[in-house]
Amino acid sequence: MRSLTLWKLVAIGLALNLCACGAIEAQRQAEEAKKQEFTKRVDTAHVWVTTGEPPAGKPYTKLGELKYTEPFTPDAIDASKMQDRLKSMALEKYPDTVDAVIKEDSQVSPDGSTVTVSAEAIQYETSTDRNALHHMNEGLVASPSGN
User: Which CATH class is domain 49-126?
Assistant: First the structure.
């Protein structure tokens, strides 16, 4: 009888232990998802889009061309939507390197049926901003005493 009670306690202990492991793993996965979402937001905020050139005296490397064509609609010629799409394209094509999208240009076809948007993705030669932004939450202290 006593050994039966002991085995029940051991079984309950093991079940609780497995539940705790599952909860810890779920928490780790949630933290990783938050970190990935934060990185995506930082990357999107970091990349800027302009119709002009990059600042004078700031050396850069051209990563490549970005271009898309879509049917003419009010959304197709909305400047903020064009910028958002160019940012998305740049981050998808050059995820760890793009700093800016320059020379943004949009052209409506002669018959008015399509809009073509083009630009260049670039990376600055001294691109420390992205790394700093990715690691800005590391080592933060929640209180002045370090607790």
Answer: alpha beta
